[in-house]
């Protein structure tokens, strides 16, 4: 009996530890592969070599990662290994503690070869000092699962934008704004059919408008502040989900494409400061019921301001400066646009009176009518002028009168009782004086 108990004790003594260890190994959390961890250290060191990344984060970077480094399983069915799925680098705000970039940041090519499971890549104000550049080539397999590629305010980062735009079949957001990228936008962008946003503003891009008609999910298209040329294609109208279209500050020419009028969901349209010309303010604007802001300034479209505003009551911003417009300002702009907060009609050849209805634009916060040929008395009360302040701009109209405390009533408007009493008093005094003079004679 004693012998059997001894055997049982020895059995547990020598087998239990190995079982426990085995169980502990099974329960050990998955770790980041060593090669991928090394690549993270290299990338962090390239954007800020003054931080001792290996000392600060000596353990597994998925178990205790730096801010801005996100690990996850590559797909829902996997539970065996973790990988880096997001990298957010650089300053966004005091409330977002991404790894900071230094003034001599560089871009380590390992970024494009070592993270095959990367879904989001963000650089915010990282490359602002010493020159940095994209690699000359980026492997085709980079970004096979990438969903968001964002480079914002990196003016010293240069390179051909075509190198960076790869075969990203799952990409939803492509935001490259305020960088030093150059070259033309490649037509292969039309193959990125999952895209919902393309923002390539404030770079040094050249060439023509790329093929985009296949991007049926696109909600934001922003090519502003570049040097793009040629005609904007009528196929823009195929992007029926667009909410924002911004092509401002380029050198597009010819006619504003009529296809823009097919964008029934569009809320923001900015085509200002291009070379569109000689076709007048497009009448198709009246067919865009969702439009909230429209800016066409700096294009010599010419013609008169059309009577389309009864169909656009939701508009809050209009920019029609420096367009070669002539004729009167339609009264319907004042009577229909009750939500209008910004109106710029300056530096045109507009004439006639400012419609009395403009004095009733209660939502207005800025009205610029400078440098036209407007005449008569401006219909803005003291209260209106106090509310808008210096953003009510009327100079450069030599024959326009701005009379303090004097606002003509709208046609058909009944005088207030106090005004009526004052008018009767003036009339009575005048009659009395005439009679007095006649009697004296």
From TrEMBL:
Compartments, record wording: Cell envelope
Signal peptide: 1-21
Keyword Ubl conjugation assigned: no
Top-rank taxon, per record: Eukaryota
Bilayer-spanning residue ranges: 419-439
Keywords (A to Z) from UniProt: Leucine-rich repeat, Membrane, Repeat, Signal, Transmembrane, Transmembrane helix
Pfam families found in the cross-reference section: LRR_1, LRR_8
Keyword Cell inner membrane set for record: no
Gene symbol of the encoding locus: A01p009820.1_BraROA
This protein's name: Leucine-rich repeat-containing N-terminal plant-type domain-containing protein
Coiled coil: none
């Amino acid at each position: 009996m004693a012998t059997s108990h001894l055997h049982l004790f020895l059995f547990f003594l020598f087998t239990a530890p190995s079982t426990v260890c085995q169980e502990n190994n099974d329960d050990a959390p998955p770790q980041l592969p060593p090669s991928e961890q090394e690549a993270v250290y290299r990338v962090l060191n390239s954007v800020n070599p003054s931080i001792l990344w290996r000392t600060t984060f000596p353990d597994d970077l998925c178990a205790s990662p730096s801010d801005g480094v996100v690990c996850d399983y590559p797909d829902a069915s996997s539970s065996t290994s973790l990988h880096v799925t997001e990298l957010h680098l650089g300053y966004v705000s005091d409330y977002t503690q991404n790894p900071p970039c230094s003034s001599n940041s560089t871009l380590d090519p390992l970024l494009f070869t070592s993270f095959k499971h990367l879904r989001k890549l963000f650089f915010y104000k990282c490359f602002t000092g010493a020159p940095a550049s994209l690699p000359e080539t980026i492997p085709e397999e980079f970004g096979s699962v990438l969903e968001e590629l964002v480079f914002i305010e990196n003016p010293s980062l240069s390179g051909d934008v075509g190198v960076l735009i790869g075969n990203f079949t799952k990409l939803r957001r492509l935001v490259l704004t305020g960088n030093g990228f150059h070259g033309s936008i490649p037509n292969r962008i039309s193959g990125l059919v999952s895209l919902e946003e393309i923002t390539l503003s404030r770079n040094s891009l050249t060439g023509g408008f790329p093929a985009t008609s296949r991007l049926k999910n696109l909600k934001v298209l922003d090519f502003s502040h570049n040097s793009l040329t040629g005609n904007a294609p009528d196929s823009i109208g195929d992007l029926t989900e667009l909410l924002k279209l911004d092509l401002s500050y380029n050198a597009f020419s010819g006619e504003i494409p009529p296809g823009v009028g097919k964008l029934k969901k569009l809320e923001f349209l900015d085509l200002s400061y291009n070379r569109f010309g000689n076709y007048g303010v497009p009448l198709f604007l009246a067919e865009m019921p969702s439009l909230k802001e429209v800016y066409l300034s700096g294009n010599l479209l010419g013609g008169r301001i059309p009577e389309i505003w009864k169909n656009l009551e939701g508009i809050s911003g209009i920019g029609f400066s420096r367009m070669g417009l002539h004729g009167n300002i339609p009264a319907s702009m004042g009577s229909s646009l009750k939500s209008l907060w910004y109106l710029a009609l300056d530096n045109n050849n507009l004439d006639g009176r400012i419609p009395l209805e403009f004095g009733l634009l209660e939502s207005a916060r800025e009205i610029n009518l400078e440098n036209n040929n407007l005449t008569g008395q401006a219909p803005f009360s003291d209260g209106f002028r106090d509310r808008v302040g210096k953003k009510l701009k009327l100079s450069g109209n030599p024959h326009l009168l701005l009379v303090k405390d004097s606002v003509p009533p709208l046609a058909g408007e009944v005088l207030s009782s106090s005004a009526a009493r004052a008018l009767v008093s003036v009339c009575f005094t005048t009659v009395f004086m005439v009679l007095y003079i006649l009697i004296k004679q």
